[in-house]
Amino acid sequence: MTTIRLFGNDIKVAEKKEVKSIMLFGTRIFFQSPALNNNMADLPPRSMRLAIESFRGSRPIYMGWKYLENSDINANLSRFLIPVECCSKLLHYMTRLERVKILNKDDRGINVSVMDPKGNLHDMKFTGWKSLGRLVFNRGWNNLVRDNQFQKGDLLQLWHFRMPNNKPCFAINIIRY
Fold first, then answer.
1. Residues 97-128: pLDDT tens digits?
2. What whole-number distance in Å separates Cα of residue 107 and Cα of residue 7?
3. I want to staple 58 with a disulfide (CB 3.0 to 4.6 A). Which of 23, 87, 92, 162 is the partner?
4. Neighbours of 65 (CB within 10 A)
5. 169 pairs with which residues across the strands?
């Protein structure tokens, strides 16, 4: 039994094992992080694992999640703003030289490949934007958005892995509600 406090009143909601959220006034409320249901933080979707294995990539490591915003799918902005909560974890898995290039003031960053939910690789830049103090994927992000028809509100899960040549890569899973 889960208790939700709404307008000062406690409402008890019976939980079934497979139910992780409820709709309340048109808004989905999760009992736990949607990106972590079914131990997703430990195990990526099977199709993603198989696609990464087909490239002989390393074991994927879960980085975090974000609900896509208008700015993430706006073709004029052409970038994915990585959530603040993911930045230090992402940098931790980069080499010292990669971190220097990503955080350098020239905004050049490093070349990475980002695997979409279909298993296709998209070449992008992974760089820090000093003006926002954030990390971004750009120069290729629009192609990934277009090819996969991303929409505002899609839940994006981000995973990191490396190719056999040690090139840093990322994989994206999208969950639509």
1. 999 999 987 768 999 999 999 999 999 999 99
2. 47
3. 162
4. 20
5. 113, 161
